[in-house]
Amino acid sequence: MPNFEFPACLKCNKGRLLPLSDYGREGATIQYKAWVCTNPECGFSLRIDNGEISYGKPLGVSTK
After folding, report:
1. Is 48 exposed, middle or buried (0-12, 13-18, 19+ CB in 10 A)?
2. How confident is the model at residue 62 (pLDDT cuts 50, 70, 90)?
3. Which of 2, 22, 36, 48 has the most CB atoms around it within 10 Å of its CB?
4. Per residue in 1-44, pLDDT tens?
């Protein structure tokens, strides 16, 4: 397995940014839809929705 290091979070400089994937309306995979900081105190997130980029919004666990 290759040794891969996730990028550092530039907001807190403590956590790492992890990529998250999702599925679209038709079931197609959307890779790297969001990036979240591993530091729970930081809470930084970067997300793509319908072609728009948003950041700083809290991400939650889906009930689906």
Report:
1. middle
2. low
3. 36
4. 567 889 999 999 999 999 988 787 788 887 888 899 999 899 89
Task: Express each pLDDT in 33-58 by its tens digit.
Answer: 889 999 989 989 998 888 888 887 76
The tokens describing 36, both together, are: 């979240």
- Cβ(20)–Cβ(12) below 8 Å: no
* DSSP per position, 4-63: --PPBPTTTSSSBEEEEEEE-TTS-EEEEEEEEES-TTT--EEEEETTEEEESPPP----
With left for phi above 0 and alpha for psi between -120 and 50, is residue 14 left, alpha or beta? alpha
